[in-house]
Design brief:
4-stranded antiparallel beta sheet, about 230 residues, 5-stranded antiparallel beta sheet, 1 helix, mainly beta
């Protein structure tokens, strides 16, 4: 009787091992990677624009409608390129090193040409920072009524200084001042453009301001591996 029970027990153990070995095994579900372009579907795409001709130092000029410009065709999605208003007035501040072109839309710096650094080696055209851009440099962003679509009044301009002004909702005066620094001014630098933004309450009541952020300009990627 004991031998019979032992034999049955051994057979049951063998059957259990066989079930474990031959039974179908569960495979964890696989997830397909998100295509690289999926993350960029929400990014607004618009036609790029080239900067129009610039005015002489300290003078204002109206730029014509911008035409299309080449965009690197490497499959990379860039920030949405903003087309400058056709009737924008561009005022230039320049010295021997830089030429800063300011626009009255946003009261900010449209772009800056670096005279000592060519865009292409061996060619005379200077490198232009923020040439293709989403916002002008130092434009107020996420600030309703004061961003790149708000047109500022040009209060005054000279060879070294430009001042813009606008009034928000009839309550807040906003002044934006830009000037080139020069020796012997402390901290002067030919590449330095000094900027001030002043908010002044025109009413007798306390008026809270929303948080203000400044655009620092737009840079494109060098290649597909650049982040």
């Amino acid at each position: 009787m004991d031998k019979k029970n032992t034999t049955i027990g051994v057979l049951l153990l063998l059957a259990a091992f066989a079930v474990l070995f031959y039974a179908p095994r569960s495979v964890p579900p696989t997830t397909s990677p998100t295509p690289p372009q999926a993350a960029s579907e929400a990014v607004e795409k618009s036609a790029p624009a080239t900067a129009a001709g610039t005015a002489a130092a300290g003078s204002a000029a109206t730029t014509p409608a911008a035409g299309p410009a080449a965009v690197p065709a490497n499959g990379t999605t860039f920030a949405a390129i903003h087309r400058a208003a056709a009737n924008a007035t561009v005022t230039t501040l320049a010295n021997d090193f830089i030429e800063a072109r300011l626009t009255d839309f946003g009261g900010a710096v449209r772009d800056v040409a670096f005279k000592k650094y060519p865009a292409v080696q061996g060619k005379p055209e200077p490198y232009v920072f923020n040439h293709l851009h989403e916002d002008p440099i130092l434009a107020l962003t996420d600030f309703p009524g004061l961003g790149r679509n708000a047109r500022y009044e040009l209060v005054r301009s000279s060879a070294t200084e430009v001042v813009y002004r606008t009034v928000l909702d009839g309550r807040i005066e906003v002044r934006r001042r830009y000037r080139l620094t020069a020796a012997p001014e402390p901290g002067s630098d030919p590449y330095r453009l000094h900027h001030e933004t002043t908010f002044r309450n025109l009413t007798s009541a306390t008026t809270p301001l929303p948080r203000a952020a400044l655009s620092v300009g737009t840079a494109t990627l060098i290649n597909d591996q650049d982040t």
